[in-house]
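Explain this protein:
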Amino acid sequence: MSAQPEEAPAPPAPAAAAELMDRLRADRRARTWVPAFERAWAEALEESRHTYSLTPLHDVVRAWQQRVAAAPAVDAYLESGRDETGFVDLTDVLGVRR
């Protein structure tokens, strides 16, 4: 019997954070992505120190891996020339949240 629930994702590889940082530094968005990753990593590291769990660090790596993987699709969408000027901002419809 396993101590973890079946739906728990496998932890990233030990070198995943370093590999991810290399990919972020090589990306054209490095100026914004690298500081954002470093902030998220520092927050997760601090939380890990208090909880004695690596889960926050794993979550940061997974989230950023997904962002990097989705970036080409986002770029393709933005470059496709889709006109979104006719859309209404959701805050205009629902109002400001309180």
